[in-house]
Design a protein that fits this description.
This protein is an alpha+beta fold. It contains 4 helices and 12 strands, in the order H-H-H-E-E-E-E-E-E-E-E-E-E-E-E-H. It is 37% helix and 26% strand. A 6-stranded antiparallel β-barrel has the order 1-2-5-4-3-12. A 6-stranded antiparallel beta barrel has the order 6-7-8-11-10-9. Strand 6 and strand 7 form a beta hairpin. The chain is flat.
Length: 275
């Protein structure tokens, strides 16, 4: 008995400290350090008050003022970005001939479920916009107005899976159909089995397009698959910032002149009818 008491007298303090450490570690794990943080706050709060000379109410008021200031700074930066984008768009509009100047419009609606499919503009028929009008932004073609109300317009984006645009390669005049891919890229299907194209070639709307005027910038060839059947395809990096559209320019619908072979065929048919 005496031996046990002597042993406990020597080791008891060590076991007590070990139990305290293990217990504290378990509490920290369960509370994720919240209790330790509370203890720290209780111990240091009087020291912080003495150092700053502020009451808890004054410190709360100061934090609220800081939060309001940061909110104002964020809002100012957002307005500055919007103003810069609008100035760029207005400069782009004014650079157009007076007879064909577009209607500036802001993107005011965009669904997360249809992010790459459509956007809603804050201009409609009261501003002269009609179905079939062309929508462009810095970088090139954005889409086509497919429905209009007096004060809004809905735009089908060229990144929509249903979108089809007749395009051509500026360097070689190789032609094809550009289809949306619900992303910042699109898929180009060529008419030729082995077209004369390479990565980096520029893509624009072609004279074969029935909905868009020719010569509108679209994007750049990013990758090629010349073994694809039944026709070669390419991935096209779109130039317009469709991912983050804010302002656009809306143009009246323009039709491409018919190719000479189609015009001559129609004239020949008309002459045969007359005969």
């Amino acid at each position: 008995m005496v031996t046990v008491r002597r042993w406990w007298g020597r080791k008891g303090l060590q076991f007590g400290l070990l139990a305290l450490v293990l217990g504290g570690a378990g509490i920290l794990r369960q509370t994720q350090g919240a209790m330790l943080l509370e203890v720290y706050q209780v111990v240091t709060q009087p020291l912080q008050m003495l150092r700053s000379g502020q009451t808890p109410e004054e410190r709360l008021e100061e934090r609220l003022k800081d939060a309001q200031f940061m909110e104002m700074q964020t809002r100012i930066q957002e307005l500055e970005n919007q103003n810069k984008q609008l100035q760029n768009l207005l400069g782009y509009v004014q650079a157009q001939p007076a007879s064909s100047r577009p209607i500036p419009a802001q993107v005011v609606g965009r669904s997360a479920d249809h992010w790459w499919q459509q956007v809603t503009l804050n201009r409609g028929s009261n501003s002269g916009i009609q179905e079939g009008f062309i929508v462009r932004a810095e970088g090139g073609l954005v889409g086509l107005v497919d429905s209009v109300t007096p004060n809004t317009s809905r735009v089908l984006l060229i990144s929509d899976l249903k979108s089809q645009v007749g395009v051509t390669i500026a360097r070689t005049s190789a032609k094809g159909v550009l289809r949306g891919d619900s992303s910042a890229e699109a898929v180009l299907e060529f008419y030729e089995k082995v077209p004369n194209v390479k990565v980096g070639d520029l893509v624009s709307t072609s004279t074969y397009s029935q909905k868009f005027p020719s010569g509108l910038a679209v994007g750049r060839i990013k990758s090629l698959d010349l073994k694809k059947l039944p026709a070669s395809v390419a991935k096209v990096e779109l130039f317009p910032p469709i991912r983050s559209l804010d302002w656009v320019a809306v143009y009246p619908k323009q039709t491409n002149p018919e190719p000479e072979n189609q015009q001559s065929a129609k004239q020949e048919q008309a002459s045969q009818k007359l005969q």
